[in-house]
Amino acid sequence: MKAPRITLDQWKILQAVIDHGGYAQAAQALHCSQSSVSYNIARMQEQLAMPLLRIEGRKAVLTATGEILLRRSRQLTADASQLEALAQHIQEGWEAEVRLVVDVAYPSQKIVQALQAFKPLSHGCRVLLREEVLSGAEELLRDGVADIAISGVDITGYLPIELGTITFIAVAHQQHPLHQLQRTLTAHDLRAHMQVVVRDSGKRQPRDVGWLGAEQRWTVASLATSAEFIRAGLGFAWLPEHMVSADLSSGLLKQLPLQTSAVRHQPFYLYSHKDKPLGKAAQILVDCIRASALPVQGSVTD
After folding, report:
1. Is pLDDT at 299 greater than 50 in this prediction?
2. Which fold has domain 8-91?
3. Structural contact between residues 123 and 133, judged by C-beta atoms closer than 8 angstroms
4. For the chain, what is the radius of gyration of the CA atoms?
5. Is residue 5 classed exposed, middle or buried when 0-12, 13-18 and 19+ CB atoms within 10 A define those classes?
6. pLDDT value for 132
7. Interval 179-214: pLDDT, tens
8. 97-163+267-291 — its CATH code?
């Protein structure tokens, strides 16, 4: 790649001429001589083989080409400043990126709130976000692929920070045959119908979830797909309340009148890598996640 002929300092000089209204004013703002400003502008125009400025009276005015290049140069110098600031922050102990893995059942709205709060405090630190199901988050944390994990799984050997409770509700389409029975449903009733379950994204010890008495199952890769199956009347499932609250309100989906509880409360936790202390950015992100956390409810019920 050919090296650029115009330096960042030269682009800053052009910006100063326009921002401060002339060569003399730019020289004063940049603490250099007016001749230095004039020389650099002339050199830029020579190297680019095109005029960037024209003089109208005593004022330097951009040409049409100069306007385009000035606008692009501002982004260039801003990016360079941000890059230098990031290098300084890394030297001071800030990470360049934080790797966050989140179970898909955790409300995405809460993650958005946390990231909105984190962004102005991040000093340019990137967040690499992955979504997993059940033991998938645990595996990434244990393998060192994630710095922070949000999971409903009790990860042995890691100190959890409770983030609150997610309510799962057994639901089916309003026209589903189970609702047509118009009575309390037994385990025998459920066995005759299709259950939609989400596949564990973990590879080593995937967990089988849902009601294990279901002999007929659709297995899907995400909760979003599971919800779509249920809305289409393709079975029944336990789904997070925050995902189906609008469907329940509209009557499209209805809670199943189970003989045992149709509602389960699952605590969710935040974990960090036990063998690697959190950096400054990761700790701030943890604080933002905790600040946006769910309300704490009861423990899991059958």
Report:
1. no
2. Arc Repressor Mutant, subunit A (1.10.10)
3. no
4. 29
5. exposed
6. 93
7. 999 999 988 888 889 999 888 888 877 766 655 456
8. 3.40.190.10
Long-range contact list for 286-289, CB < 8 A, 24+ apart? 286/148, 286/161, 288/114, 288/115, 288/117, 288/118, 288/121, 289/110, 289/111, 289/114, 289/148, 289/150, 289/163
Do 8-91 and 165-265 have matching folds?
no
Tell me the per-residue pLDDT of 114-159, one tens digit each, with 9 for 90 and over: 999 999 998 878 899 999 998 999 999 999 899 999 999 899 999 9
Pairing mode of beta strands 126-132, 97-103: parallel
Domain residue limits, the chain: 8-91, 97-163+267-291, 165-265
Could you give the CA distance from residue 237 to residue 240 in angstroms, rounded to a whole number? 10
All residues at 6 or more sequence positions from 251 whose CB lies less than 8 Å from its CB, including other chains: 174
What backbone torsions phi and psi does residue 82 show, to the nearest 5 degrees? -65, -35
Distance, CA of 116 to CA of 56 (rounded, Å): 46
- Cβ atoms < 10 Å from Cβ of 110: 20
- Kindly report the CATH number that applies to the domain delimited by 165-265: 3.40.190.290
* Termini Cα distance of the chain: 64
Section 226-235 average pLDDT: 95
CA dihedral 140, 144, 148, 153 (to 10 degrees): 40
DSSP state, residue 253: E
